[in-house]
Design brief:
This protein has helices at about 1-20, 50-60. It is mainly α. It has a domain at about 25-65. The chain starts with a helix and ends in a 6-residue tail after the last helix. The relative contact order is 0.13.
């Protein structure tokens, strides 16, 4: 019984990996509220600081993301 369970789990894992191998690129959405100083800062007009926007942009431009 244990061997059959292991084979079934291995087959399920293989099918899951094969299904995602040819998946289309997804859009990565990042949200922040700017409420965790010193990591997030808001300017006087309520917008995210330049550094915060640049860091999020660097994450989005990493390989395999769009």
């Amino acid at each position: 019984m244990r061997i059959a369970l292991r084979i079934a789990l291995a087959a399920s894992a293989a099918m899951l990996m094969l299904g995602s191998a040819h998946a289309e690129d997804k859009v990565l959405k990042i949200g922040t509220e700017g409420a965790y100083p010193p990591f997030n800062n808001l300017t006087a007009d309520g917008k995210l600081s330049w550094l915060e926007v640049e860091c999020l942009g660097a994450c989005c431009n990493a390989p395999m993301t769009r």
